[in-house]
Amino acid sequence: MSDIDAAAGRYTTIAGEHRSELEIKRSRFITVLRRTETEEQARALVAELRREFHDARHHCSAFVLGPGREVQRSNDDGEPSGTAGLPMLEALTKRETFGGATDLSDITAVTVRYFGGILLGAGGLVRAYSESVSSAVATARFVRRRRMQLYGIAAGHSAAGRLENDLRAAGVSVLGTDYSASGAQLRVALPDTADALATFHSRLAAMTAGASDPVPLGTKWIDLD
What we know:
Helices cover about 35% and strands about 35% of the residues. By secondary structure, it is an alpha+beta fold. The chain has two domains: about 5-140, Ribosomal Protein S5, domain 2; about 145-225, Alpha-Beta Plaits (2-Layer Sandwich). The strands form two sheets. Strands 1, 7, 8, 9 and 10 form a five-stranded antiparallel beta sheet that branches. It has a five-stranded antiparallel beta sheet with strand order 2-3-6-4-5, sandwiched between helices. The longest helix has 18 residues, at about 120-140. The two termini are about 20 Å apart. The mean pLDDT is about 95.
């Protein structure tokens, strides 16, 4: 992830789980990608696939975790050192996403290999595992994530609907509206940047004639699409 992306609080992951398969010189390479946010989830996927493909010779893995890709691990699982896990990890970390960014994270790749009887050699293994993960990522659906600042905005019952429409029309992400006997509270999410927050406060003041003072509710990573 570039310094600009990290400062802006955004990165890319994948939607759910995705699978693909390649055959290279009779060996089958089955790659499973899954969105994961912790090492426990990543290792759980490896364990699941060991059970599912219990008769396979190798279950090689790589994962990248965290908004800033702080955690990166790989495992050759019996293949010659450096010929499986590391190429898989590089296929994840060097993959370009939206706008050419290299910011793919919160993802685990496991490549299951069924040996086909033909030795590939060290170079052949590196290419095979790299291609297997690259092919899987190329057909997975990307999801952009952004760190957002959450705010609550108090409004009367009669004004809540109009205010929500005005905020949406202004490009503000409205997460929902909670109603109670005393009134309503709109929950909104804004990019966690000084410019975005200043613009929001100015627009809200204009929409409500200064009557609504937003209450900070903390920050949260949110899927944009």
